[in-house]
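Dear support,

We are seeing what looks like truncated structure output for some complexes. This example has two components. We would appreciate it if you could run it in full and send us the complete token output so we can diff it against ours.
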Amino acid sequence: MSSLLRQLAESQVLPFSLAAGVLASLACGIVGSYVVVRRISYVAGGMAHCVLGGMGLAYYLNRVAGIPWLQPLHGAVAAALMAALTIGLVSLRSKENEDTVISALWAVGMATGVLFIAMTPGYSSDLMSFLFGTISIVSRGTLYLLACLDFVVVVVGAAFYKQFLALCFDEDWARVRGLNVEFYYLLLLCLTALAVILLVQVVGLIMTIALLTLPAATARRFSLHLWQMMLMAIFLGTVFTTSGTVLAYGTDLPAGPVIILLAAGTYLAVMMGGRFVHFGAERLHSRKD
Amino acid sequence: MSTNPAPERCDPPPAISCHGVTFRYSARPVLLDVNLEIPRGQLTVLMGPNGGGKTTLLKLITGIIEPTAGQVRVLGKRPKQARSKIGYVPQHTTSTNNFPVTVMDVVLMGRLQQARLPGPYSRGDKRHAVEALDAVNMQSAAHRPFSVLSGGQRQRVLIARALVSRPRLLLLDEPTTHLDRRSEVMFFQLLQSLHKKMTILLVTHDISLVSSQVETVVCVRREVETHPAAQLNLTSLRETYGTGINLFRHGQDLPAETSR
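Here is the complete output from our reference environment:
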């Protein structure tokens, strides 16, 4: 135990990994809560998998076409935003079923990404890092980019809280009241895309939906207000990413799966004890009344 | 020596007016040449069978859709311009049952148009919300989760959300669908108290809602017919619904009329 603590203290990369986890938790707490209450986790899943296409293309152009500044993260941002706008516009304006388009983007994104990575000369373990995350080798540059994305997500998510709350709670009513539902839905999807990018760095694109939704879904069970759900989801996300990263570091396991299993285990435990908690809260409120 | 003519007194425009309104989905007409005028201060019921065009007419009045032909005016303005004066109570909300909001959160949503700037709702908004909850007798539930309320209580909260923006026209869409008899009676008592302050348009396919407080009934079945509620008879209802119906008049000691 003491040797693990010494290793942690002396580690050069661990502070970056933990910081990346905290940044991802901020975004996933805010956006994840909107995603859970608006029931668009399948949309987030589609975006996460579509991201691989952008990452693969950027990776290919970087290595083969010799564009050194173009990093996979840039490709991921472009692909996620494109997927968000496509899904949003189809959902709002097209007669095509939304789930059909999401499934198509999901598969096409994965296929494109795998093909570009296969065509790129080099060590193929890069594919694995996209799929399962790179939290244990986060660079300072990546951290700054993540902080920028986080800033946008937190500021926009908090600034339009009232509008997003109305949109998520009662879209039809919000439309009648004159809220620009189309604009705010697209904005919410773009925020979700940015949160997906942050989470892809931590747990990889395959497990992104889990980290986006599990802390928020767990937090919902203890929350009276949406903002409470967000704060609790941020706290839970930070606990999961920090403890998962440290645990993985000590046991030499991949961090992404450890984080996800911690989040899923907590959600399961809370769900099992949910009835007890629910009745407790109800009794508390009835006493207050 | 000339004298200025006395200014003409202009009557305020009606709460709702439709002139030659037609609306088509693809080629199929849902509403055809609708002419309708609902004066201010009335309690009006808009009724008709499912698929008759009630919801479409409501969407036209709220400005969600534009008519294919004709014009709709609400309080003398285009519907989109009059939205701040319209209170809308839907049949139910589109959210899940376990959405984390309190009653106060829901009512405050009604202040969204007045509180567009980022940041929390102001003290003034909260004061209006408390007053609206008071009007529907739900002030004691302000900090309870919305999800634990009964159907009747939820309906009252949704009415409070509509009232908090101080509307001059209140639209209620199928308001008693999920209510038991007791809640329905309480709902009508509430409607009676609100009726003194604003124009109310109640949309329903439930004929039983035509109570003694209702002044006008608008029957919608692609075209519209307007009847004073007291003169509503079986013939007009049968024409609207096209089926056998029973008619009971609330608050009047009259034998029920029956038709098959």
